[in-house]
Every structure is written in structure tokens, then in C-alpha cells.
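Task: fold both queries, return C-alpha cells.
Query 1:
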Amino acid sequence: MTPLNALLVSHGTGLGGAERVMLEAIDGFDREVINPVVAVHEEGVLAERARAMGVAVVVTPGPWWLPFADTADTAYQFRRWWEEAPSVVAPLADIIRQRNIDIVYSASSPILHAALAAHVTRRPHVHHMQDLLGRPHLNFKMPFGSARFAYALLGRLASLVVCVGEIGRQDIGRVVPRRKCRVVPLGISPSQASPPPPALPTVEASAVRIGVVGVVDRRKGADLIPSIVHRAVRDVPDIHVFWAGGGDRALMERLTAEATIAGTPHLHFIGYTDRIPGFLRAMDFVLHPARNETFPRALLEAAAAGRAIVTTRCGGGEEIVRHGVNGTVAAIDDAGAMAAAVAWLARDSHARTRMGEAGARWAAPFTLQRYQRGMQEAFLDAHAAGPAIAGRIPARLIDACLALPARAIPPLRRWAARGV
């Protein structure tokens, strides 16, 4: 059997959540069935890791079509991306032809050029949907002000949409046919048990250690931590929050200062670490005050580590945490409710143990091997389904549309304005 040549296109070059998920899928591929090639827009850690796995890497332009909301101007640059797309799609299409690629994969929603290159070259396309575009608090600027158009376009150009959780399938399923969407849950391996990161900040032996994992930004609820700390410390003075994840240094310093009480800092940033399982096991329980999450891997790892969880109705939070069983679930932005839950768990070690054990039992089926099998099956099924819109829209029409500014398509604006 000749293996399928698969081109996996990443939106990032580091080792964020989407990149880790992609590498884990590649690591599980039977190379006699799927031969992976990774495409990045510049060299970085992702390319290094892929090559270390024996995977070919190509470098080609890959601008995001969904920019960060706080960096996009008020006019939103979707029209500019659309006008410049031919110069981005063409090199990727050349790579597809030159390397005899059989199927194309997009690692996340900010990627659109890979789907277009797949269509132009008549290849099947798998889109891995790892964002809840239809919910608030996501820091992406939506085309025409709505997620409806984004979901519809990404879904239309995909032979198969892979969602990391049921919440994600429900969200995109409002626009994309459910038969086209498949949930492949993330997984973790027992072998991922690692020692704690070196040199964790020293606190009192009696302190209650609360772990937070993720990028330090507003979507993860970083701005809520000082308020949660101040409220919880009134009941339990020895609370300390440890945050594992990168972010803006100035923001970290400001939040640390705001969470300092009577000269004692109660918030400690340790930066990025690849020892998350070990970090979680060094904590007493986990806090996740996020505003928008599809299926947060950090919570899956926390549950597997036997840690109780305080989270929000951010999407994936309520999919992983059953209120009162393996943690507590608060409303988004409700710092008071989260602080009350933190203080309660800090006082009640028996509740922490009970919830942690329940979480470990729940997380047991979410193995890395199951995720990897699911991803290989998704690639094979998408390939069998064929190109997403084969025989319906000629490639030359796509080329013409790429040159058409989005402002010249008012019907799309009116349709998108209906919302998701």
C-alpha cells in the first residue's frame, strides 16, 4: 500500500496548543499509511521538533486571515488579505503539486490559504477547528463582524471538519452540516508524567498551591486573578497562585503587584514549561478563569493528574468539569464565585481529594493513542470523501474571487450580519 502524502499546515511556529496537537497526530501516524509533511511560515521550534521526528518541513508564506482583534484596525484587514491571497495560495499549491500531496490539513481557524490551495489543486482538505468562533471573548476579528461567514467558508472548503470537543461541534454545527463535523477528543499519555519545573517560587510549607496553565492574556482570564486572590485570601490567607505559561512581561509584573497583599506576593509567574503534568501534580488544585475555550488541554491534564478544578462556562470548561463532581463551574467573569470556590477547596482537603479522584476516573479514556487513531481515521475518511467542492466550482473561479475585494460582496455582509 502506497502511503498518502499529507501536508499539515500550521498557523504558528512555536509549541502552543494547536502545534502540540498537530505534532501528536503526526507522531501517531502509521508511516506506511500516511506520510506527513509540515508547512510553516518561518523556522522555529515547531520545525525543529518536526524534523527531529523525521518529518519533512517546508517554509511558505502563511498570514492569518483572522487577525487578533486588538491588533486589527477598525476597518479590519480581511479585504487586504483577500486581495493578497493569490501570492500566498500559489506557492502552497506549487508545493502540493511538486510533492504529490494527497490530502491537506489546516491546524486551526486562522488558516484559510491551505483550504484554498487544496481546492485549486483538487485535493481533499481537513480543517482542525480548535476555536469557538461563535462565542464572545475570542480575540479574533471576524470578517463582516460575525463568525457565521467564517464558519461557513471554512466548513465549505473542508472535506471534513475535526472538532476537539462536543461544544466545538455544536458551535460550528449551527452553520456547517453536522455530518461534515467529527469530534476527535484530545488525549494524554500516562508516560507524560514529568517532574515539576525547576525552581518553583518558595512559599510557606502550609501554603495552598493553586495552579493555572495557559498564555497570560485576557481570554484566559488573567486580569481576574488579583480580584480572586484578594477575595479568597480574606478566608484563607495562605493561598498562592502559580501560573505556568508565557505572555507579556509587563502584564505579568502588573498582575503580580496587584495580587500582592501586605507585602506578600500571592501570584507567581513561572513562564513557559513543557513539564505541565509535573507542575500540576505539585499543585493542590487548579484554577481556570478563562472566557473562551474549546476543549482546554490544561483541564484534561489537570483531571488526569487527580486535581480538582475551578473553571467557568467558557465552552470546554463545562464539558470537562461537572459541577460538584470533579470541580466547580462559575459564570464567566464572576470573580466572586471563583474566589468562593477557591477558598472552599483551599479549606477542604477532603473535597479536593474526592473531586480529584473523580476527575482522574473521567479522564482515563482520553488516551493519546485514542486521539491518534481518531486523527488517522479522519485523514483516511476525508481522503475517501474527496475534494470538498470538486466539480462544482472551477479553480479559475476561485482565482477570480481571490482578486475580488470583500467590500464588493454586499450580500455576504447582509448574510453574515444575521449572526451565528
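Query 1 returned. Query 2:
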Amino acid sequence: MTDGKLTFKTDYAGIIDLLMGKVKPAEEGKLAVEPSPEKGATTVEIQKIASINPPPKVLPKWHGNVAAGGYLQSGNFDRAGASFSAEALRRTESDRIKLRYIFNYAEEDDEVTTRNHYGEVKYDTLSLKNFMDL
């Protein structure tokens, strides 16, 4: 840390500078970080700013859906059927999880013609290096 600027050197992104303080307009194309008792004033080119007051990290939330359907038919043949599906997803900066389940059932004249289940569990890990290689 020098003159109110914290610098990180990384293999994946080179040099990263972090500044904290009140921001005010400066010369064209730049912002100034006002001085404080601990650090001096610094100017920064606007195009080099990654974020100002980034939002706080929040816990990942699950998202998904549930669907159900069915039918009844009577006449020359008596038919009935039902289906059910559910899916749940969660994604963070470092991984994602997907859960899926599907069930189908059908019968004709009291004889089962369809009964199947499908399930899926998927886990992916995401890393900054994976994105940098694309």
C-alpha cells in the first residue's frame, strides 16, 4: 500500500489497484479520490475503474419450477395419464447446481401403458481461469 493505493499482482489479471475514499470530478476523463488523514489524493482514468461501491455479496438463491398435468378420456377406450416435472437451479460465481425430475404415467382400459422416471443432477465448478482460456 502506497499513497492510499493498494496494489495486487496476479498471474491471471496482471496488476490490480484498489482505491478507497470519496470521489469527485477531476480533469476530463478522470475522477479524483479525495485525500484523507491516512492517504493523499489520487486521480484515476474513468475507463480503468472496474466498480464504484460494488454491491455486497449475497447468499446464492435457488430458482426453479414445478409443472403437473393430466388427462382423462372415456369412450370406446378409457384412457388416463399424468405427468409431473420439477427443476431447481443455483448459480454462484464459483459453481452451479442443477436438479431435475420428470415422471410420466398413462393407462388404457386399466392397463399401464407408460410409466417412466427421469432424473438429473449436474454440478459444474466455474473458475476465472476457465473464462480466461475461452
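Both queries returned. Flag for query 2: The chain is about 5% helix and 55% strand.
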